[in-house]
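Task card 7
Instruction: Convert sequence to structure tokens.
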Amino acid sequence: MGDRAGIAGVTVRAFDSIEDTRGALAEIHRDDWKLAPRPVQWDLIRTKPNVLRGVHVHCLRWDYIIVVDGHGTIGLKDVRRRQASFGLNTVIEVTGDQPTVVTIPPGVAHGIYANTALKHLYGLTAGWDGSDNDLGCRYDDPTLGIDWPCTAPILLQRDLDLPDFATLVKQYEAATISTADIAT
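Output:
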């Protein structure tokens, strides 16, 4: 089913690639793999070198990340206090040369850094409409504990303005309590 990254619900699955004189083919999704809920939206994202996207966390949806070209570093940290993996972090290196899917459940903060020009497929289990309480924290907060392979990445202003990790945890807990109240 894939290599677990140490954080509950996160999976890493390298794809088998079939090569011949024309090039290569890799299956990137099969329903029988059952990695996580099925994506309903797919985006193709191109990122310039030295760009860091994130760090964000979603309250409701799963994300799939598949790098198809270039080299990326995905940083993850569990903000779900009720999980045994709460507070754990990890870094996963992904390249287009070895296609791999990383599935990220709700409540796991994540970002992706482009070591080189990067193209990746981004699957979402709920269509993006801004209502998923998209929260985040500063990529360089020492409490986040992610060892990014950069010191001065290019970031959007909204990512530069994000709070620290402790604030993110409080915001996530408040948002998930609100979401649970709405569902009942």
